[in-house]
From TrEMBL:
Membrane topology designation: Single-pass membrane protein
Entry's localization field: Cell inner membrane
Cellular component terms (Gene Ontology): plasma membrane
Gene Ontology BP terms: cytochrome c biosynthetic process; cytochrome complex assembly; heme transport
Name assigned to this protein: Heme exporter protein D
Transmembrane segments: 20-41
Keyword terms, alphabetized: Cell inner membrane, Cell membrane, Cytochrome c-type biogenesis, Membrane, Transmembrane, Transmembrane helix, Transport
InterPro entries referenced in this protein's UniProt entry, alphabetically: Haem_export_protD_CcmD, Heme_exporter_D
Renumbered residue ranges of the record's region Disordered: 58-83
Species: Serratia fonticola
Function: Required for the export of heme to the periplasm for the biogenesis of c-type cytochromes.
Transmembrane helix in keyword set: yes
Family recorded in the similarity comment: Belongs to the CcmD/CycX/HelD family.
């Protein structure tokens, strides 16, 4: 098996096309890094939104239960007085 380049300097020079090759590599890596950062940011935002929604629903349920609990004894007292 033969090496494609005779030295590291020849590898980095890319046969005279180094500017274009390394610019393409840099653009690709920056795009992938940007995509990774954006995905992680969106995931964090989505999890926070789910947590806020679940908390809101839990507060609504608790409020409804407390209203029902408060309303139940009054209706029992009303029935007892009418009898």
């Amino acid at each position: 098996m033969n090496a494609a380049f005779s030295s590291w300097q020849a590898f980095f020079a890319m046969g005279g096309y180094a500017f274009y090759v390394w610019l393409a590599v840099a653009a690709t890596l920056l795009s992938l890094l940007g995509l990774l950062v954006h995905t992680l940011w969106q995931r964090k935002q989505l999890l926070a939104e789910v947590s806020r929604q679940a908390s809101r629903e839990r507060r609504i349920r608790q409020s409804q239960q407390s209203k029902q609990a408060a309303a139940t004894p009054q209706s029992v007292n009303s029935r007892e007085k009418s009898q």
